[in-house]
Amino acid sequence: MDSEGAQDWLRRYVDAWRTYDPDAIGDLFSDDVAYRYHPGDDPVTGRDAVVASWLGTDSPDGASTRDAPGTYDADYAPVAVDGDTVVATGTSRYRDTPDGPVVRVYDNCFVMRFDGAGRCREFTEYYVERS
């Protein structure tokens, strides 16, 4: 993985979160991905389980709830790339309604490992809400 590939993956991640397209979500992750919404969580394991979790058809402890269309936006960028490991930081912004004001902002850090095909095989999110 390189910085350009990591930035492309992050762009696709945001697009998948905005659209909740199952194929776009699944394309991000390896078959055996271990996905953690919080560092201390047991991982959601496997691509299909991650897709189901994002779509809200399965609700593991600590998973995010599905955002209404037009209420989520984000910008993330890699800050460190070392072989198959990427650390990215950025900001997530939420609105209660698509045309409404931003009501919550989070600073995020993702720690990820990728396979040879550029699919994420380990994902852990760290975040804090701005006050």
Automatic annotation (TrEMBL):
CDD domains: NTF2_like (cd00531)
Pfam families: SnoaL_2
Record-linked InterPro entries: NTF2-like_dom_sf, SnoaL-like
SnoaL-like domain location: 10-121
Name the UniProt record assigns to this protein: SnoaL-like domain-containing protein
Organism: Cellulomonas aerilata
